[in-house]
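Annex B. Sample input.
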Amino acid sequence: MLKILATTAKEVLLLLRDRTGLLVLFLMPAILVVVITLVQENVMELTGQSKTQVLLLDQDQGELGRLLRKQLEAGSLEFVVWDEKQNDVADIQAAVAGGDYQVGIVVPNGASTRFKEETARLFQQGNGPAKPEDIVSTSLHLFVDPGIMAGLRSGVTAQLQMALTTIALEAKIAMLSKTLRETMDSLGAPPELIPLDSGKLHALFRQSILTLTEDQGDSRAAGISLYNPVQQNVPAWALFGMFFTAIPIAGSILQERRSGISIRLSALPVSPLVLFTGKAVAYIGVCLCQFLLIVLIGTFLFPHIGLPCFTISMNLTAVLLTALLSSLAACGYGIFLGVACNSYEQASTLGATTVVAAAALGGVMVPVYAMPHMMQRLSIISPLNWGLTAFHDLLLRGYSLPAILDNLGRLFLFFAVTVLLSWKLARLRQ
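Annex B, continued. Sample output.
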């Protein structure tokens, strides 16, 4: 035990001397988690998960524009009224095409009047109902930024079409009720024989008889919020920073080998496993400090820059255990790189490449479900995927410790295998 403590103390002293390296280890994941989370939060707005701003030019200033705003503001659209002094369609088209706004809607002059007239023609008396081909549709103008994603374009178009369909259906119901009442009055029928008045028809129309209820299941704990990029990115980029410690660990081993210190250490009655354990303990402290820094950024900085606050509402012990085993896996990989490589250039190149590849494959940069099917199947080989899946099960799905034991076991097995291989290679080099 004293030998392990002495080795750990040596590694801590070396780490404290390398202040630039420590700064990179802590600064890199901190910058990445802020930048990537801000970008993803904006992407959520552009894909409809947050309210999308829509530029509105109401040239008509009638009932149709008012009804349209009422229908759409209940959804995920937020209207920005175009300056009435700039009452020009070309201006709003240029603003949307230039990327200042993603979507623009124009209600032309006389739209409300034409809409009422064509609705009345559907139920006109005398010559019989109008033929469908005789009805002139009232058209609103929609402008969409050509640079936006297809998902947002489809979502906004669908919401607009649904709102217009609802407005038209309500107008038809009102006109049908009026026509029925006038017809019954012309026949001299008493009011009680009229089946439904306009108010009752509208109430029946708005009454929902089909609903869709999300079933959260028994395994999902109460109080778990919907997905947000903070809960995804804080553990993801903390893991990324942890595994990047593999490069300084490998560099430390290679520096000892190049300077001849490893030869002196091998002459002492100390097993390579003891030396590896000392390195692992020192760098586990670095990894846990990295994790704590990213958590503090998510908890205290994010709310001040317009992002949701990172929360660990439950399973704190399981979260800390996942961070510890992820740190072990990262340290094991760094030890293996240091023993297997012959130079620092080899270790840094191989380490950076493999960590970035494992992060991409493991869902740190792009969620696994958004990858092609083949890559989804390959993601299981990434240690970062094991740690990230465990964090997601705890933070997003509300699972308890027994549900993540398989991924924790994979992380520990990865650490054990890499240290065992490093020990074998170190004995061969002696």
